[in-house]
Fold:
Amino acid sequence: MSAGEVFHEKQRLELCAIHALNNVLQERVFTKETADDICKRLAPQCVVNPHRSMLGTGNYDVNVIMAALQSRDLAAVWWDKRRSVQSLHLDKVHGFILNVPSRVSLGIVSLPLRRRHWLAVRQVGGNYYNLDSKLKGPTCIGGETELRTFLGEQLSQDVTEMLLVVQREVEEDGTWLNTEEAKK
Structure:
């Protein structure tokens, strides 16, 4: 499968969480409206919702991502960075959502500020792709070896976090972790 056949939403407003969800699912499932509805369910009594930007432009937090995945019978498993990515049982992982530092820019001017940004990584047609919504298109990472290298490099940054997107039963039985590899 070519990169042209890989579903990839591009960045709009502060909707990277929605783009990461849709990119990891490989279809447009979630919208700003569905994410806002999730926010309201998570904090029904709040005038200013703590799960999104006060300006209403997005910037959704991890709780919205987790609730969205649960609505699709999926789960988000927080990755403990003290573990090696070699201990991942990749055939049990549907995809990855990473939270990374990102430069802030106004048009073509890059500001000396950093914000948080959600991006997705997913296997499609035998290759893993970086589906960051800030990229012009999907970027092929390669096979399992290249994926583990990519994830290791991303996680080496102090502030990067990773969620494994797995089926609920995989989350419950913990089979996303290769226990033999984890013991090494």
